[in-house]
């Protein structure tokens, strides 16, 4: 275990990117593929890369995060030294002049001062991969970089808002939204702790609100930077549509197995729910059904979370159903996302499209 690496998950810049899915929760708490949360992938990769202490800048709407992350052992952080800290900002400090996500860096500066190592890996939860960052950390340290940006180089760049990197001789010289640029930026970077602390002081002293955009992006020429191509299966989350597309793509059996059971298994909160119960007339095809679900109807090309009840004659196609939902007999759902604790009454039909899935808010009854 590399004791020199601190993990930092900064959720502040991405708190509203997934629209309806983040009305009642932080981005890291968004459920994914039936039994995971998006933050699980970031924590798993950091832990597998040597980070035994992980801080989470939670912003607001962090109650579900506190519940989900209350057992560090679930995420492979063993022993007295392993820690996960969920860190909301302190709004009551009268001397605090920081803005934006600099409030987190200012209010929780002890996280960096007390950590004895000299490297920090920073990430959000808008990017997940099936490969840890061990080789990227090694590259960063062996080349004595101030900051190493992790991303990937692709031949056919997607038409998406994912940030791109301009590179020259292995250095990152700028960031762009040029859709023809194939150097995709994951939002993950490794930075010397000393450099990080200097950036925090600069941003606060100059009333800058964004650690990344004001402290790094606008001052790139001052740092010795590097680009590391992760060369792995990746998924980016920047809208409800991208969330839906990523979920549907991972229903492919081979892709699912490769992604979730690659280098190491993705860790998540341990559940004691019983196995899925399939009643006599139930039918399931090309779907993920989590523990605790009860199925009497038909499920096709869908993701069903824990403790979902699907009534007799109900049909679910191309949909994502969060935990504790009830779909009563005869209901029909297609291209739909149901948030937690939703009830769809008997015979009701809801249909979205693949380009724009229909989202039902948490605790609704239709």
From TrEMBL:
Entry's Gene Ontology BP terms: glycogen biosynthetic process
The protein's enzyme class: transferase
Domain Glucose-1-phosphate adenylyltransferase/Bifunctional protein GlmU-like C-terminal hexapeptide: 280-349
EC number: 2.7.7.27
UniProt keyword list: Glycogen biosynthesis, Nucleotidyltransferase, Transferase
CDD domains, sorted: LbH_G1P_AT_C
SUPFAM superfamilies: Nucleotide-diphospho-sugar transferases (SSF53448), Trimeric LpxA-like enzymes (SSF51161)
Chloroplast found in the keyword field: no
Transferase in keyword set: yes
Molecular-function GO terms, alphabetical: glucose-1-phosphate adenylyltransferase activity
Taxonomic superkingdom: Bacteria
Residues of the Nucleotidyl transferase domain: 20-222
NCBIfam families the UniProt entry points to: glgD
Family in the record: Belongs to the bacterial/plant glucose-1-phosphate adenylyltransferase family.
Official protein name in the record: Glucose-1-phosphate adenylyltransferase subunit GlgD
Recorded name of the encoding gene: glgD
